[in-house]
Every structure is written in C-alpha cells, then in structure tokens.
Amino acid sequence: MTNLKMQSSQIEEFWPKSAPSILNVPKYVEKYQNDKIVIKCGGAVLEDKHLFDNFIDDIVVLNKLKLSVIIIHGGGPRIKKGLEKKQIQSIFKNGLRVTNLDTMQVVEDEMTKFNQEIVNALNLKSVKAAPCHLKQNTLFQVKQISPELGYVGKPTNINISIIENFLKDNLVPIIAPMGLDKEKNKYNINADTAAMSVAKEIKARRLLLMTNVEGVLDEQKKLIDELNPKQAKILIEKNVVQGGMIPKLLNCIESIENGVKGVVIIDGRRKHSILHEIFSDTGAGTLIRE
C-alpha cells in the first residue's frame, strides 16, 4: 500500500526511543488503518504532568500514523479536589460516584476544563482535536441509573455522526463523559461506561482503558495477560476483583458481547503504554476478548 510505505519511511522522525520496536509498526498500522481505536484515559494520567505529557505524545504518534483514535477522559482526581474545595463529601456505591446537583456542577466544571486542556495540548503538537462536552458537541442522551445514585446516567443514544465527521477530517474527538436526559437535565457518566458505549456504537477494533494498575490481577496479585468474558465473570463472582475494577470489567464484558473485538486494561503509569499495547506482540496489561 503506497500510503503505508510513505509513512514507513518517515516513522523514525517521530517514533519515541523508549517505544516498542519500530520494525513492527508498519504491520500494525496496516492492521488498524481501517478500524477505530477508543482510548479512555483516567487515573494518574489526570494528575501527573509527566504522565499526561506522555499520553499526549502517544496520541500524537497515532495521529501521525493516520489511525482513527477517539479519546474519552475521566476526571476522578480533579473532581475529588473540586469537591473538597467546596467541602462536598464524595460518596461511592459499587464504584460509582453518588451525584447530587451541587456535585454535578463540580463534575461539569472540572470535566470541561480538563477536556480543553487535552484539546490544547494536542493542538500545540500540531494535532487537531475537537472538544465534546455539555457546552459543545454534546454526544450522549442518557437515562438515570437509579435514584440512589442521583445524577448518574447511562447512555441511551449517542450522536455518532459528530464523531464520524471529526474522524473524516483527521480530528481527534476528545469526549467528556457527561450527557443530558430527555428533559435536558445534566448527568455524570462513568468514563468506562461512556467509552464502552462509544466503542460498541462504532464497532471499535480496540478499546483501551488506562488505569493506575498493571491490569487485572489474580488471587496471588499477579497480572493476568488475557481473559475471556466467562473468566472475567468468575473473577467478579469470586470477589477476586473488587471496587472500581468491578464496573470496569463489566463494561469490558458488555463491549465484547456487542461487537468490540478486544478491550485492554492498561497501566497509564507505564511510559508509552498505548504504543506498547498497539504496536507490540506482547501488549501491555490485560486483554479481554472471546
């Protein structure tokens, strides 16, 4: 393929030294060039400048390789700090933040600010990015999960044409996980749930969930390289995974059962973890697939 060969001759100009072998890159570019990759960034990436810069650099590389990438970001650490400033207590149930009206306002403020930071950081690296949040390019229509959780919603409809139009123009959509119900009330969405919903809708080749751990750990706290949905369900039933990893794994399972070819839980603290996952045979983290 001519375009691929042209890219191969130029890869060395922007390929990071500490990334996986450059020899495998053309093979993987060919593998993913007609597919979409959804990446959810969260955890330490949100608060550590070094990790954030590394994340941005990886997205720049993917964009230069002409791969179609969609970013969904969380906001947990920033929301926590914003709530503490306003002396609002954080309460979680089954890994999800209980959200009243005051909490939702903080969520929106912090998410929108971080969304713009990602857009600006990519623009500074000559990568065009497009913000998607409650004030601009709103994607998600939602319904309330339960009155107990308050303004926490699950997507019922996604305006996927917005994403597709951005990708056609080689823009990277940067999506904040918030949406509106039919009465235009604002809702927080678990970032993994939002990423899964987008990945399902566009039949993504890969969904990458960046977190603060290596991946899914077994009973001996050792990394599990690969799981199928049945094995993942057993880990939940046996309480091997707990807390925030439970909704994360449930989202992985639902994604696989609805057309996403593979979901990977990767360690956002590892340098170039995205590139190691996409451009190496060993990957980075835990791959969930059939």
Can you characterise this structure?
This protein is α/β, with parallel strands linked by helices. It has one domain (35-288): Carbamate kinase, CATH 3.40.1160.10. The protein contains ten helices and 14 strands. The strands form three sheets. Strands 5-8-2-1-11-13-14-12 form an eight-stranded mixed beta sheet, with helices on both faces. The two termini are 30 Å apart. The relative contact order is 0.15.
What topology emerges from the helices and strands here?
Layout: H1 2-10, H2 25-32, E1 36-41, H3 49-64, E2 68-73, H4 76-85, E3 92-93, E4 96-97, H5 101-124, E5 129-132, E6 140-144, E7 153-158, H6 160-168, E8 172-175, E9 178-180, E10 186-188, H7 191-202, E11 206-211, E12 226-227, H8 229-237, H9 245-256, E13 263-267, H10 273-278, E14 286-288
Parallel strand pairs: 1-2, 1-11, 2-8, 5-8, 6-9, 11-13, 12-14
Antiparallel strand pairs: 3-4, 6-7, 9-10, 13-14
Helix pairs in contact: 1-2, 4-5, 7-9, 8-9
